[in-house]
Design a protein that fits this description.
The complex is a heterodimer of chains A (about 240) and B (about 400).
Chain A lengths: L3 E10 L3 E11 L4 E5 L6 H8 L7 E6 L2 E2 L5 H11 E4 L11 H6 L9 H14 L15 H13 L5 E5 L7 H16 L3 E6 L2 H6 L2 E6 L2 E4 L6 H8 L2
Parallel strand pairs in A: 3-8, 3-9, 6-7, 7-8
Antiparallel strand pairs in A: 1-2, 1-4, 4-5, 9-10
Chain B lengths: L12 H13 L2 H39 L3 E6 L14 H7 L3 E10 L3 E2 L13 E5 L3 H4 L4 E4 L11 E4 L1 H7 L7 E4 L2 E9 L6 H4 L1 E5 H8 L7 E6 L4 H12 L7 E4 L1 H44 L1 H9 L4 H38 L7 H28 L10
Helix pairs in contact in B: 1-11, 2-9, 2-11, 2-12, 9-11, 9-12, 11-12
Classes of the chains: A alpha/beta (about 240), B alpha+beta (about 400).
C-alpha cells in the first residue's frame, strides 16, 4: 500500500479555473520527494488535496489507504491528526507561547493528556536540535529556529507523512539548510516527507522530484522513471 | 481494502478551557474592555438588588425592633360625612380589653404654637398641638432626647414636650424656653427622640390632658388611641376595638396598624428597583453585543490560527467549542468582576446609610447564569463562522 495515491485528480475552482487537470501520483512510505513547479502550476492545490484540507472535483485521493471522498469532515480531521503533519512557509507559531507548548499543541487533537503532550514535545524539540530552547518564545528565536519548532510540532505525533509547504521560503540560506537537514533526518528515521517548493535547488536536493506545470505532472509521477518522461514530454 | 474507522479524539474539558483562555491571554486590552461592558451591567444589577435588599433588611430589622403589635384607634366619619368623635371614656375601656398591655391617647387641641406672640396665628409650621396621656411614651416605646416627659404633676401645668420634628421646625434645641399657645406662655420641659411608628407625634407639641382643658379649652375627646397587646392577640384586639370604643356606632371607628405603613413603604420601593433593574439589563445587553463584536473580530484576525488547528486535526466542532469557550470565559470574567463591583457598591452604600449590607445569593446566581447565557449567545455566531472557515486558509501564502 502506498501512502499517497492520486488517480485522475482534477480540481476546478468556481466552475472555470482548472487548477489540476487529471493527475496521477503515487508516493510510497518512506520517500523523500519534492513537488516542484512555478507559482500557479497547481502544486499548492496538490498539497491541499494530499493534506486532505480540500477535496478533488473528480478523481480519487487515497491517503494512508483511506479514500478521502468516503470520509466525513470529522473523519478527515482525525486522519490529519494521526497521519499527517504540516509545515508552513510562515511557521504559524502562537506568539507569547513557549516552544514547548507550541509543539505540545501538535498533539492537542489526538486525545493525549497534557503531561504526555509536553514530554513528547520535549523529545520532538530535541530531535530538531532545539532541546536547549524549550522555554523560549517564538519572538526570542531566529527564523530557522522557529521553523524547526514548527517541524517539531508537525512530527510530534509521529505522522507517517510530513507535508512541508515552502519550508525555507522565509529563511536565509543558512537557516534553510538547517531546516532541510532536519527534514532529511526525519526521512532517514522513516517518515515520508513531501516538500512543496518552487525552488529547483531544493527540489534537486530530494531523491525524487515531481514536476508540476499548468495543473499537470510533467515529470516524476511515480509510474515511469523521470528520465523517460523528460524524453517523451519535451519535443 | 478496509481500514480502521477514523474517529476524532475528544478534547477534555480542561483542554477546552486552556484553548479558550489562550485566545484571551494574547489580547489583554481588548479582553478587559469587552469584559468591562458585561461587568458594568452585572454590577448595576447586583448593586440595585443589593441596595434594595439592604434597605428592606434594614426596614425589617426596624419593624422587629419597633414591634408590629401597636394599633391605633381614630375616629372615622359619621353617616353624614362629618368628622366623628371618640367618646371621652374610650381610653379607659381600651385599657380594660384583656390582652392590651398598655394604652394611651392623644387629643388634638384647637390651638397653634408659636415662638412668640409677635408671630401671626396663621403661621403654624405644620405643627399640631395635642393633649397626651402620661403613658404615651411607654406605649410608643419612645424616648426623651432632652429634658423630661409629662408626669402626674406636670400634666396639670402649663408645660409642653416637643416632638423631634416640631422642635426642629420651631428652632428650639433646649428645654426651659417658652412657647406661645392660645394666649399664654408654656414652658418647654422636654424634647422627644424619633418616633418611627408615630410620625404625627414627632410633629406635635404635647401637653397634659388636664392642662389642655384648663388653659386651651380642650373638650377631652381623644383623637388617637395607641395600644399595644401581645403579638399573638393583635388580630383579636383589632376586631374587638371598634365595638369597645364606640358600642353605639362602631363603624365610625378606624383602627390601623402603623407597622403596616412601614411594610408598604418597602413594597413601594420595589417598583423603583424594577426600573433600575431594567436599566442594568440594558447595560448587560450592550455588554453582550460588545462581546459578540470582539469575538467576530477575533475570528477574522485568527483565520490562520483556525486553519492551523484544522491542519493539526481539529474538527469543526472543536473549532466551534474553542470560540464558544473563549466567549464564555470573556463574559464570565465580566460577570465575576461585575458581581464583585456590585457587592462592593452595595456594601459601600449600605455602610454610609448605616444599613446591614445584604447581597442575596440568588442575585449572584442569577448574574452568573445571565453571563453564561450572554456568553453563549454572543459566541454562537462567531463560533459558527470560525467552524465554517475552509481548512486551507493556513496554507495561503500571504
Amino acid at each position: 500500500m502506498s501512502i499517497v495515491e492520486l488517480q485522475g485528480v482534477t480540481k476546478v475552482y468556481g466552475g472555470r479555473v482548472e487548477a489540476l487537470r487529471g493527475l496521477d501520483l503515487t508516493v510510497e512510505y518512506g520517500e523523500l520527494l519534492a513537488i516542484v513547479g512555478p507559482s500557479g502550476s497547481g502544486k499548492s492545490t496538490m498539497l491541499q488535496l494530499i493534506g486532505t484540507l480540500d477535496r478533488p472535483t473528480s478523481g480519487t485521493v487515497r491517503i494512508a489507504g483511506y479514500d478521502v471522498a468516503e470520509l466525513s469532515d470529522r473523519e478527515l480531521s482525525a486522519l490529519r491528526a494521526r497521519h499527517l503533519g504540516f509545515v508552513f512557509q510562515q511557521f504559524h507559531l502562537a506568539t507569547g507561547v513557549s516552544a514547548l507548548d507550541n509543539v505540545a499543541d501538535g498533539l492537542l487533537y489526538t486525545g493525549t493528556a497534557l503531561r504526555e503532550r509536553r514530554e513528547r514535545a520535549e523529545a520532538a524539540l530535541q530531535r530538531v536540535g532545539l532541546g536547549h530552547r524549550l522555554g523560549h518564545k517564538p519572538n526570542q528565536m531566529s527564523g530557522g529556529e522557529q521553523q524547526r519548532v514548527a517541524v517539531a510540532r508537525a512530527v510530534v505525533g509521529d505522522p507517517p507523512l510530513l507535508l512541508a509547504d515552502e519550508p525555507t521560503g522565509n529563511l536565509d540560506s543558512h537557516s534553510g539548510a538547517e531546516v532541510l537537514r532536519v527534514l532529511n533526518d526525519l526521512h532517514a528515521a522513516g517518515t515520508t516527507v513531501a516538500v512543496i517548493t518552487h525552488d529547483t535547488e531544493i527540489a534537486e536536493w530530494c531523491p525524487r522530484q515531481v514536476r508540476v506545470r499548468d495543473g499537470q505532472i510533467i515529470a516524476g509521477d511515480g509510474r515511469r522513471p523521470p528520465a523517460e518522461i523528460a524524453k517523451g514530454a519535451r519535443p | 481494502m478496509t481500514r480502521a474507522r477514523l474517529s476524532p479524539a475528544r478534547l477534555s474539558a480542561v483542554d477546552v478551557l486552556r484553548v479558550g483562555a489562550a485566545g484571551l491571554r494574547t489580547r489583554p486590552t481588548r479582553v478587559i474592555l469587552s469584559a468591562l461592558g458585561i461587568a458594568i451591567g452585572i454590577a448595576t444589577m447586583i448593586a440595585v438588588i443589593g441596595i434594595s435588599s439592604s434597605s428592606r433588611e434594614q426596614l425589617l430589622r426596624q419593624l422587629d425592633r419597633l414591634g408590629t403589635n401597636l394599633l391605633t384607634v381614630a375616629p372615622g366619619r359619621t353617616l353624614f360625612g362629618d368628622k366623628a368623635k371618640l367618646p371621652t371614656f374610650a381610653l379607659s375601656v381600651v385599657k380594660r380589653i384583656g390582652p392590651v398591655n398598655t394604652a394611651s391617647a392623644t387629643g388634638t387641641v384647637d390651638a397653634t404654637v408659636r415662638r412668640t406672640d409677635h408671630i401671626p396665628e396663621a403661621v403654624t409650621g405644620g405643627i399640631s398641638v395635642q393633649a397626651a396621656s402620661t403613658e404615651l411614651l411607654t406605649t410608643l416605646e419612645g424616648s426623651v432626647s432632652k429634658g423630661i416627659w409629662l408626669n402626674a404633676s406636670t400634666e396639670h401645668a402649663p408645660a409642653v414636650v416637643l416632638g423631634s420634628e416640631a422642635a426642629k421646625r420651631l428652632g428650639l434645641g433646649r428645654t426651659g424656653v417658652r412657647v406661645w399657645m392660645g394666649n399664654q406662655w408654656f414652658t418647654v420641659i422636654g424634647i422627644l427622640g424619633p418616633m418611627p411608628l408615630a410620625p404625627e407625634i414627632e410633629r406635635s407639641v404635647l401637653l397634659g390632658f388636664p392642662a389642655a382643658a384648663t388653659y386651651l379649652a380642650f373638650d377631652g375627646h381623644p383623637t388617637t388611641i395607641y395600644e399595644r397587646s401581645g403579638e399573638e392577640a393583635v388580630e383579636a384586639v383589632r376586631a374587638a376595638l371598634p365595638r369597645t370604643v364606640n358600642p353605639e356606632t362602631p363603624e365610625q371607628v378606624e383602627v390601623s396598624r402603623p407597622s403596616d405603613a412601614l411594610a408598604a413603604r418597602a413594597a413601594a420601593a420595589d417598583a423603583f428597583t424594577n426600573l433600575l433593574l431594567g436599566l442594568g439589563a440594558v447595560a448587560l445587553l450592550v455588554g453582550g453585543v460588545g462581546v459578540a463584536n470582539t469575538m467576530v473580530i477575533s475570528v477574522l484576525e485568527r483565520r490562520k490560527e483556525i486553519g492551523l488547528r484544522r491542519s493539526l486535526g481539529a474538527t469543526r466542532g472543536q473549532v466551534r467549542i474553542q470560540f464558544l469557550s473563549e466567549s464564555l470565559l470573556l463574559s464570565a470574567l465580566g460577570g465575576v468582576a461585575g458581581s464583585v463591583l456590585g457587592a462592593l457598591a452595595t456594601a459601600g452604600y449600605a455602610l454610609t446609610r448605616d444599613w446591614p449590607p445584604v447581597v442575596p445569593p440568588w442575585a449572584i446566581g442569577g448574574a452568573i447564569g445571565a453571563t453564561l447565557v450572554i456568553g453563549t449567545v454572543a459566541g454562537l455566531y462567531p463560533a459558527m463562522r470560525a467552524a465554517r472557515l475552509s481548512p486551507t486558509i493556513a496554507l495561503a501564502t500571504t
